[in-house]
Amino acid sequence: MEEKKIAVIGVDHGYGNIKTANTVMPTGIVKYDSEPAFSGNILEYGEKYYRIGEGHKDFIPDKSTDDDFYLLTLMAVARELNIRGISQADVHLAVGLPLTWVRAQRQSFKAYLMRNEQVVFHYNKKKYEVRFVGCSVYPQGYPAILNHAESIKNVSLLADIGNGTMNTLYMINGKPQQGKMFTEKFGTYQCTLAVREAFMQKTQREINDAIIDEVLITGTANIAPADLKIIKIVAAE
Fold it and tell me: What is the distance of C-alpha 64 from the center of its chain?
């Protein structure tokens, strides 16, 4: 009998976006007790429905506090398996945690993601049957440069700037300095919050985060020039 191959799937559990090698989805999730009126990005699990990519995931220092990141992981796995043209698989997860959280949270986060060995769920009405056979937890950002760390000379700084946190790690001749790594709650969403507050103070109007994001990404949006100016000034600061 041919041995079944294990699908290794990397998942980046960001506060702004959840990523895999081939997919990106905003880290938002809204639960429904019955099937939503509009289709698209719907996870069915445990007799509940979840729309992925809707809303915004607030910052929490322990990602295993609620079920959201577990459900988002199922979605991420489904999207990767769909790209590979399969719906049944033995899966080994490869995930990361902020640099200064890894030692304290590695085992609990692994247990959180591996809570169910066999999982059956639907994503966008397609059935998936997954057996989780392992989970590796790495320091966030560091695996991206691991294969060529030896070529990095002198003092270097690895910076992983996410939506909710910023992780920095000093390296000397490619070797990480464990005593000089930092996790700050200062991701790009702090810029969004600052823009929103400044916009309210100057105009007495609210502005949607999606518009702010569009300006941060593209430099412009289909809004009044005066409104665009406010956003760009605060973003530059």
Answer: 13
Q: How far apart are CA 224 and CA 119, in angstroms?
A: 49
Segment 154-192, tens digit of pLDDT: 999 999 998 888 999 999 999 999 899 999 988 888 899
Nearest Cα neighbor of 77 from 161, 133, 146, 143 is: 133
Measured CA to CA, the distance from residue 44 to residue 58 in angstroms comes to 22
Answer whether 94's CB lies under 8 Å from 146's CB: no
- Torsion (CA) 12, 43, 116, 111 in degrees, nearest 10: 30
Cα angle: 113, vertex 119, 124; to 5 degrees:
100
Residue-averaged pLDDT of the chain: 93
In single-letter form, the type of residue at position 97 comes to L
**φ/ψ (deg, to 5) at 40:** 110, 120
CB atoms within 10 A of CB 100: 18
Q: What is the pLDDT of residue 129?
A: 97
Q: What pTM, to 2 d.p., does this model score?
A: 0.86
Quote the percentage of the chain above a pLDDT of 70: 98
